[in-house]
Specification:
Length: 320
């Protein structure tokens, strides 16, 4: 029945985690919890970095952009997966798949780019503190963010135009919970995907340059930090840099593993877990990592909650 339905329709069939109805509902609920946690955490970071006057430095400006990016990134795949599981309908139209590939590849590249910019910001702040305000002035920060988002859009256009210019010869069944690029390439004709390989090779070279830049920044950061005589000063710097290094390493390693690993007709549970690690976990963990290890963020959140508490009391007293 599934094969007949998909061959007579123009879209794709997403084979998610299980065909069992109870497990589908369980996965939908788990995804919903992770999605709500990600939305709440990233929205809190965006709010406090916008309202708190003490969090207007470039580091928090880039952190706000990362949270906005994570909100968008997780919204590309997870709501569709939740809806498919709850409705027991894994079909996605051709247009939906195009949009999902475009936004997913655009935002994935934008994440790499913003993490690179954030590493350069930390490198400048720690290695060139006297020149930091000149190098990372608000105008340069705005241009950096514009370049990050524009580069993401360009990569999305390149990937999407290359992928959907190929002819899909096989039955359009995707062994994933979203329109994943490697799974789409598996459905193509013999030599139809050479354009995609060219785009992927180009983006891989640029991503490698970003990775080298991040590694270069942290080698210099740690060599500078180790020369700081104060243990408190070293601890403060490490508390700022180590969360960022963890986020970069986790996102890049899982993404590279997923995209370089050969696709199979029967993906294992490990394949699905890796896809979750680079699509769902980073946007969910980023707010926790950055807020729990950052005293300024925790203080700003406490102040925001106290202001709301007192404003609520004042409103109640005025009404009485």
């Amino acid at each position: 029945m599934i094969m007949t339905n998909i061959t007579t329709r123009n879209g794709f069939l997403l084979l998610g985690f299980s065909d069992d109805r109870e497990l589908q509902i369980l996965y939908a609920l788990l995804f919903l919890v992770l999605y709500l946690v990600a939305l709440t955490g990233n929205f809190i970071i965006i709010t406090i970095t916008t309202l708190d006057q003490h969090l207007q430095s470039p580091m928090y400006y880039f952190l706000k952009q990362l949270s906005l990016l994570d909100l968008s990134f997780i919204s590309v795949t997870v709501p569709q997966a939740i809806d498919n599981s709850l409705m027991d309908d894994n079909y996605v139209s051709y247009g939906q798949c195009i949009l999902q590939v475009f936004f997913f590849t655009s935002l994935a590249w934008t994440e790499v780019a913003i993490l690179t910019v954030m590493s350069y910001d930390r490198y400048t702040a720690i290695c060139f503190p006297l020149h930091y305000e000149v190098i990372m002035d608000p105008r340069n920060c705005r241009w950096a963010v514009i370049a990050v988002w524009v580069s993401g859009g360009i990569s999305g256009i390149l990937y999407t135009s290359a992928i959907f210019s190929i002819t899909f010869c096989r039955v359009k069944i995707i062994h994933q919970f979203f329109c994943d690029v490697p799974q789409l390439l598996k459905l193509s004709c013999s030599n139809d995907y050479l354009g995609v390989i060219g785009v992927a090779a180009f983006m891989s070279v640029v991503a490698l340059a970003c990775f080298v830049s991040i590694a270069f920044s942290y080698v210099h950061i740690f060599s500078t930090v180790l020369r700081i005589p104060s243990a408190e000063g070293r601890s403060k710097v490490f508390s700022t840099c180590l969360p960022h290094l963890f986020v970069v390493s986790f996102f890049l390693s899982t993404g590279i593993c997923a995209y370089l690993k050969p696709t199979t007709d029967s993906p294992s549970a490990f394949d699905f877990m890796v896809s979750i690690f680079y699509t769902v976990i980073p946007p969910t963990l980023n707010p926790i990592i950055y807020s729990l290890r950052n005293e300024a963020m925790k203080a700003a959140l406490r102040n925001l909650l106290l202001e709301k508490k007192f404003s609520g009391k004042n409103t109640l007293l005025s009404c009485c």
